[in-house]
């Protein structure tokens, strides 16, 4: 395969037509001109950095969602405990007043 990449946009266009795997294969086996290979390697590096950043962002979002869920769960657990405490106090007060009468 002889492709001539002068800039990243050339690689973008080529990958859309032929696929990223073919680009990686061409770089690996050395079928590109040196200047085109440098541009192709830069494109691959950029793609890998973008993919890694997207994965990190997804992990952060998932962690944030889990923290919010845990916080919400803890809040409702606290509300349920408070309601149980109020119920216990009401039961104790009722028993006290019943015993006094």
Calculate the mean pLDDT score and round it. Answer: 91
| SSE sequence, one letter per element | HHH
Count of individual domains: 1
Shape: rod-shaped
Instruction: Estimate percent helicity.
Output: over 70%
- Unreliable residue stretches: none
Strand content: under 5%
Main sheet attributes: strand count, strand direction, barrel closure: none
Structural class by secondary-structure content: mainly alpha
Total count of strands? 0
Cα end-to-end separation: 99 Å
Number of helices: 3
What is the C-alpha radius of gyration, as a whole number of Å? 32 Å
Features:
3 helices; 101 residues; rod-shaped; mainly alpha
Quick description:
The chain has 101 residues and is mostly helical. The chain has one domain (8-100).
Structure overview:
By secondary structure, the chain is mainly alpha-helical. It has one domain (8-100). It is built from 3 helices and no strands. Helix 1 (8-18) packs across helix 2. The termini are far apart.
Q: Mind sketching the topology for me?
A:
Blueprint: H1 8-18, H2 20-29, H3 34-100
Helix pairs in contact: 1-2
């Amino acid at each position: 395969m002889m492709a001539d990449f002068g800039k990243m946009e050339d690689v973008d266009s080529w990958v859309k037509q032929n696929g990223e795997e073919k680009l990686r294969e061409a770089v690996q086996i050395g079928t590109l001109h040196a200047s085109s290979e440098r541009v192709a390697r830069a494109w691959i590096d950029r793609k890998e950095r973008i993919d890694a950043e997207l994965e990190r962002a997804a992990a952060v979002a998932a962690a944030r969602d889990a923290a919010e869920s845990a916080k919400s769960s803890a809040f409702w657990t606290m509300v349920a405990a408070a309601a149980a405490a109020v119920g216990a106090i009401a039961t104790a007060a009722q028993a006290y007043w019943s015993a006094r009468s």
